[in-house]
Specification:
213 residues, 6 helices, 27% strand, TIM Barrel, binds zinc ion, alpha/beta, 9 strands, 9-stranded mixed beta sheet, globular
Length: 213
């Protein structure tokens, strides 16, 4: 079957996200998603906890701040420490039984891998709804994926409930985390989606600021 999954969502376990477990559930269902990957910054505890508590299909993941830029590990059950080189980060993700995604590989204003993407990655996030400038990043990421011949995925990088589902990956798999991850590694998936509207981003920044003060 074909599953519609947003592979990049931050919850309140990331200090810069507003998405509570309740929001996650509400907006994922509203957007018609079959599942989400929770990818909080350098944490896995929230993802594992929420995965147990919701009836939503959750892929536990983490967005790791490697020395060379952000890397997403999906289906990892233990923490991969930040501030390691990209190669060691990939080793740790694979040792933990997960797959590694080069997220927003070339966008500005984010910790991007830029030239450090190799065929050792299992997939490239060619569409990231929060990336800037959006069309340029999608085009360049598609080119890198073609050159390396690795799978293409998409995620919203949502930090605010209404942003969930702006991008998603269609995966040919049964609704089971191990099966989904296996299908992505094989390339049985396709990226879809668009940029988060500017108005929504401004509202989110305002809400995040208001929470801080
Ligand atoms: Zn990132
Ligand atoms: Zn992110």
């Amino acid at each position: 079957m074909q599953l519609k999954i947003d592979l990049h969502v931050h919850t309140t376990y990331s200090s810069d996200s507003l998405i509570t477990p309740k929001d996650l559930d509400f907006y994922a269902k509203k957007r018609g998603l079959d599942g989400v990957a929770i990818t909080d910054h350098d944490r896995i505890d929230g993802a594992l906890k929420i995965a147990k508590e919701t009836d939503l299909l959750v892929i536990p993941g983490t967005e790791i701040s490697s020395l060379n830029g952000h890397v997403i590990g999906l289906n990892v059950n233990e923490l991969v420490p930040p501030k390691l080189g990209v190669d060691e980060t990939l080793d740790r993700i694979h040792d933990a039984g997960g797959i590694a995604i080069a997220c927003h590989p070339i966008t500005f204003f984010k910790e991007s891998l830029k030239g450090r993407i190799s065929p050792r990655f299992d997939a490239i996030e060619v569409i990231n709804s929060s990336a800037f400038p959006f069309n340029y990043t999608v085009r360049r990421s598609q080119e890198i994926a073609s050159t390396l011949g690795i799978a293409r995925v998409a995620g919203s990088d949502a930090h605010y409930g209404p942003e969930i589902g702006y991008a998603y990956t269609l995966v040919d798999a049964e609704p089971d985390v191990d099966e989904i991850v296996k299908a992505i590694r094989k390339g049985s998936c396709s990226p879809h989606g668009k940029a988060i509207p500017l108005k929504m981003r401004i509202k989110k920044e305002f809400l995040i600021l208001r929470r801080k003060f």
